[in-house]
Each structure stands twice: as C-alpha cells, then as structure tokens.
C-alpha cells in the first residue's frame, strides 16, 4: 500500500473514532455529572415524599488547590415517588445526577414507621447505588439530619461518611448496616432488617434517675451529652419487623446485638465493683471467638442457648487499687459474667417479646433442624420468634490493668 494512501486511511480511522466517541465522552465527562453523597427521604403533608440530595463540590475544591473545608450543596424536591424525585432533580440541577458515590441513605423515623420497602427496592434496583451504602433511621427529619452533619476532623463530608461506622468495631455503639444487608434481610425468611439509629445532638441525657454508669449505656441518638460542631450523631439500632420500624436499641443493647452477631472486636463496659459497694469498674472486653448458638425447634416455642467467652482487662484503677490479687480478679470476672448475662438476656427478650423481630438471625441455625426448605418455611420462624426463650452463659477471664500486673 502506497505511503500516502496508508496515511490517509489512518487519518480516516482517527476521524471516525473521534466522531463516534465524542458524544459519549461529553456525556460521561465529570464536569457534566452531579455526584450525590447522601440521600434523605422524608414524608410530606400531601402523602408524597420529600427527597433531599447532598451533592459533592470536590471538583471545584481540587481545581483551586484549597485544603479548606468545602460545603456540599443540599437541594430538596417533593414528588410522588423516589424515582420521580430523582428525575425532577435531574432537570433542576442541569447536570446528570450520578449516585455511584452515595455513601448514606437517611430515612426519617416517621417514614420508617409507615414502611420503606418501595424505596429500598427502588434504590437496590438502581445500578449506581452501591450495596455498601449505609442506612440511617433519623429521629428527626432526614433533611435536617443532613444539614446538621458537619464533620470536625474531615475536610470533605464524603470522607466522614466513609468512616462513619468504623467505631462499631471498637465501641459497639452502632452497627454497620448497609442497604445490601437491609434488602437481603427484607426478603429473608430467617431474619429481620435493622439500621443505624441517627439523630441530632441535643446535649442531654435520657433519664436522670439512672446511675452514672447506667446513663452511659442507656444513651441513644437524640439523647446524648455531646457538644460540638457536628450536629448529627449515631448511637443505637433501629429495629424493623419486615419493612416497618418497630423499636430502638440503646448503647448497651447495641453492644449485646453485636456480640451475638460476632461483629465487635472490643468494647468498654462498667460493671459493679465486687469490693466497693455502689461503685463501678470500667472493663475492656474482647470476644474469644464466635458465640456458640444452638436452637431447639421441637416445639413452637423455640429454645435458644448461647455461650460466649471474653478476655478483658480492668481499665479504671486508682493508686490504692486492690485489683491485683487472684481472688479479687476472679470476683471481677464473675461480676462481668453476671452483668453481660443480664444485658444479653434483656436484649434478647426485648427483640422477641416486645419487637417480635429476629434481627440477630437465629433463624439461620434454626433452619438446619429441618430436612427441607418447605419444612423450615412451614415452621414459620419469624412468626414463632415471639415465643422464644433464651439461656445465656458467659465465661469471662479478666486480668488486672492494661499495663499494671502483679509481680
């Protein structure tokens, strides 16, 4: 092929390539997209939905080279459905909405009590929504929750949303609840959905009649002593029966929930001091393996046996401490056992007798008692969970202080 002809052929291919892909490139250009970081969904007065979108402004920030905090754009729209709300916001923004970077989805408590299955199915059916996006049930309007979220340690709110549930592993105060997990539980025949309980910082405690130690563990979102720039907070679990909110768990109940789920690495508790009447000891505990769970389904009143083991260290000590002798250490371990057994039992009976909701997923080990899926479905685990009884045994081995040991 002559050189001139070959060059002309190459040039023609380049022109065809540019024409074919120029429109596609233009539509996918980052400058033509509006990235959603969070979605808030509320009810409205006319039986519609008020949907709030929080958009990222990181493009402008990166171009300027600034390290200052960037304020996200927050816009709301009222529509008959979530899909229509997204469509209307597309027309308003002048850019195509992209939800592939959406980190959290917030539902108001009022909407959650009515049921959120339609919204969950719509979101999970959207290929841009990642299953790892967290679900929060807000004690206040979702729109207000988003507006009050002002991270203090992060320049970008997107980064804050990314690390939102990290503390779950070392405090046990919130679950790592995602839309993927929620959807799976929604269609599950052996468990029920749950979500993060969120609210607004009001710098107050829940019940002044509780002891100082009990106050810490009775806390939940909207009833905390926090004071800071960030107005939103997350403590506790929102418990669902099918797609409807039926109740809440406070801090110690959330720890109990995560212990059963084997989803906490370590946590701090305050147990009654065995040698100082009326005082409490702070103990850092770490689970020793997964809980041993056995479920008896020989009757319509399931019997659930749970055995758990922990190792721990005394976290709060004084100079005249007597917590170095083996006898006292054994007494502290026994106090931990009694405290955890009581709280685990209270949590379990609350979900069974009050909420009728198996968020712990005991239905999974229960299903192994049946030879077939139809036989398991006939038993009706989710209906029979309200009849369940529990036997909890805790074995704790506590050592002295984190760095102080007897020599």
Strands, total number: 14
Instruction: Report the C-alpha radius of gyration, rounded.
Output: 26 Å
In terms of structural class, how would the helical and strand content be classed?
alpha/beta
The overall pLDDT, averaged over residues, is 85
Shape: globular
Which series of helices and strands comes N to C?
A: HEEHEHEEHHEHHHHEHEEHEEEEHHHHE
Report how far apart the termini are: 91 Å
Residue share in helix: 25-40%
Tell me the count of domains.
2
Low-confidence stretches are 17-28, 60-67, 402-407
Count helical runs. Answer: 15
Strand content: 25-35%
Task: Please summarize the sheet with the most strands.
Answer: 9 strands, mixed
Which features does this protein show?
alpha/beta; GMP Synthetase, Chain A, domain 3; nine-stranded mixed beta sheet; five-stranded mixed beta sheet; 36% helix; 407 residues; 15 helices; single chain
Give an overview in words.
The chain is α/β, with parallel strands linked by helices. The protein is 36% helix and 26% strand. The protein contains 15 helices and 14 strands. The chain has helices spanning 3-28, 58-64, 82-93, 109-114, 117-124, 142-148, 157-162, 168-171, 179-186, 212-217, 251-261, 326-355, 363-367, 373-379, 381-384; strands at 33-43, 49-55, 73-79, 96-98, 104-108, 134-138, 194-200, 232-241, 244-249, 267-272, 280-287, 292-296, 303-314, 389-401. Helix 5 packs across helix 9. The longest helix is centred in the last third of the chain and has 30 residues, at 326-355. It is globular and about 70 Å long. Mean pLDDT is 85; it is low at 17-28, 60-67 and 402-407.
């Amino acid at each position: 092929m002559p050189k001139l002809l070959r060059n002309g052929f190459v040039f023609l291919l380049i022109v065809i390539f540019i024409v074919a892909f120029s429109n596609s490139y233009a539509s996918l250009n980052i400058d033509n997209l509006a990235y959603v970081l969070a979605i808030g969904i509320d009810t409205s007065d006319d039986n519609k939905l008020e949907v709030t979108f929080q958009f990222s402004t990181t493009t402008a920030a990166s171009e300027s080279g600034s390290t200052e905090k960037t304020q996200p754009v927050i816009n709301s729209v009222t529509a008959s459905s979530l899909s229509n709300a997204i469509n209307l916001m597309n027309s308003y923004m002048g850019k195509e909405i992209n939800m592939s970077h959406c980190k959290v989805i917030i539902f108001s408590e009022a909407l959650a009590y009515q049921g959120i299955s339609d919204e969950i199915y719509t979101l999970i059916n959207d290929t841009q929504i990642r299953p790892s996006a967290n679900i929060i049930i807000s004690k206040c309007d979702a729109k207000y929750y988003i507006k009050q979220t002002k991270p203090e340690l992060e320049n970008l709110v997107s980064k804050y949303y990314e690390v939102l549930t990290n503390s779950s592993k070392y405090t046990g105060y919130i679950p790592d609840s995602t839309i993927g997990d929620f959807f799976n539980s929604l269609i599950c025949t052996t468990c029920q959905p749950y979500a993060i309980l969120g609210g607004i910082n009001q710098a107050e405690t829940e019940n002044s009649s509780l002891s100082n130690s009990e106050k810490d563990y009775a806390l939940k979102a909207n009833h905390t002593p926090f004071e800071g720039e960030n107005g939103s907070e997350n403590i506790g679990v929102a418990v669902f029966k099918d797609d409807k909110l039926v109740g809440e768990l406070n801090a110690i109940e959330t720890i109990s929930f995560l212990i059963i789920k084997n989803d906490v690495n370590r946590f701090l508790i305050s147990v009654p001091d065995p040698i100082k009447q009326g005082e409490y000891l702070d103990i850092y505990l770490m689970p020793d393996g997964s809980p041993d769970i056995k479920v008896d389904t020989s009757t319509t009143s399931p019997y659930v046996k749970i055995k758990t083991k922990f190792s721990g260290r005394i976290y709060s000590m004084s100079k005249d401490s007597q917590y170095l002798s083996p006898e006292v250490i054994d007494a502290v371990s026994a106090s931990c056992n009694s405290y955890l057994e009581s709280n685990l039992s209270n949590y379990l009976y609350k979900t069974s007798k009050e909420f009728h909701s198996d968020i712990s997923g005991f239905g999974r080990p229960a299903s192994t008692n049946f030879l077939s899926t139809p036989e398991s479905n006939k038993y009706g685990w989710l209906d029979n969970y309200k009849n369940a009884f529990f036997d909890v045994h805790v074995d704790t081995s506590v050592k002295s202080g984190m760095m102080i040991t007897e020599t």
